[in-house]
From TrEMBL:
Designated name of the protein: ABC transporter substrate-binding protein
Sorted UniProt keywords: Signal
Every Solute-binding protein family 3/N-terminal domain range: 41-270
Record's subcellular location: Periplasm
Main location: periplasm
Pfam family, one: NMT1
Family: Belongs to the bacterial solute-binding protein SsuA/TauA family.
Residues annotated as signal peptide: 1-20
GO cellular component terms, A-Z: periplasmic space
PROSITE patterns associated with the record: PROKAR_LIPOPROTEIN
Length: 323
């Protein structure tokens, strides 16, 4: 593996962009960085969830402006769509998650993970059933219908990982159900079990549903989850712009962590959650740097589950910032 170091200084002083790329026919090169933004206006695919709130916070609180960036936030349906749009050049950056990105990268989709914005917070992802359901534990979902928003994603992957932790052999029948329809589906018994990240887990608890598994325990605890991606070509051509974007995201995450009460008061206006839910819901763990070892642990988990080739090196598709 070769490492390409791109100096970022002058106006954007503070961090250097480090881009790893695999040797051989897939090796990429990057333009030299000189501290000057290649682009000052960028488009970002977004979804108004707490996990990605740093991008909205950075926009409203001036962190992008401080880096010399003007961002256009473009709503998208989800991370997989964002991956497609940055790979094709329709967007400069987009939300995604570490699982979808690693699967796409293992299949040679030309995307780079440019920032890790949040990890799973305690209690932020659960499985739940109706109060009178005979299902009482993770082992009981074997053969049952389990709703997830999309397969090969955080829901079914963390379920499989927790089952491995507990030594439980399960084969549920996954059904793709949009999050807003998950609770009604469980209530109507069209699915046996619902999967819910926040704020949908708080809504399920509030509706009297019974939690049967906390998917943020075991090796899922603080799992690197929410990320931002860009197309390989964009990163290669815009190293300083990429570094500036990442710095703004990390600065916003650190600021959120330092002002949790303010963040909870602000969140309803972005994520459209009721104010009372925002005050009590489990929050993601906002991070302020890329940790390649933790990102590799996600790829290793996916390899162990047979979703990507074992031994796939995801660190060759990451951007890190060095002081």
């Amino acid at each position: 593996m070769t490492t390409i170091r791109l100096a970022a200084a002058a106006l954007l002083a503070g961090s250097a962009l480090v881009l790893s790329s695999c040797s051989g026919s897939s090796e990429r090169t990057a333009a030299a960085a000189d501290g000057t933004l290649e682009q000052t206006e960028v488009s970002v695919g977004v979804l108004p969830l707490a996990d990605y709130a740093a991008v909205y916070w950075a926009d409203e609180k001036g962190f992008f402006e401080k880096e010399g960036l003007t961002v256009k936030l473009e709503p998208i349906q989800g991370g997989p769509i964002g991956i497609q749009k940055v790979a094709s050049g329709e967007l400069d950056f987009s939300i995604a998650n570490s699982i979808s990105a690693a699967i796409a990268q293992s299949r040679k989709t030309p995307i780079t993970t440019v920032a890790h914005t949040a990890s799973l917070g305690d209690g932020s992802g659960i499985l739940y059933v109706k109060p009178d359901s005979p299902i009482t534990s993770l082992a009981d979902i074997n053969g049952k219908t389990v709703g997830v928003n999309t397969t090969n994603n955080i829901g079914d992957v963390t379920i499989a990982n927790l089952a491995a932790d507990q030594g439980v052999d399960i084969e549920p029948r996954y059904v793709e159900v949009p999050f807003p329809e998950m609770l009604p589906g469980v209530q109507a018994e069209s699915i046996d079990v619902g999967y819910a990240p926040e704020p949908f887990s708080s809504a399920a608890r509030g509706a009297g549903m019974r939690e049967i598994a906390d998917l943020t325990t075991g090796t899922n605890n603080a799992l690197p989850a929410s990320i931002f991606v860009a197309g390989d070509d964009f990163v290669d051509a815009n190293p300083d712009t990429t570094a500036a974007f990442a710095r703004a995201i990390y600065a916003a995450g650190a600021d959120i962590s330092a002002h949790e009460a303010d963040f909870r008061n602000w969140l309803p206006g972005v994520a459209k959650v009721p104010a009372e839910v925002a005050q009590k819901m489990s929050l993601p763990i906002f991070v302020s740097r890329m940790d390649p070892a933790k990102m590799q642990s996600v790829a290793d988990m996916l390899g162990a589950q047979g979703r990507i080739p074992e031994g796939f090196d995801v660190t060759s598709h990451l951007v890190t910032l060095e002081d």
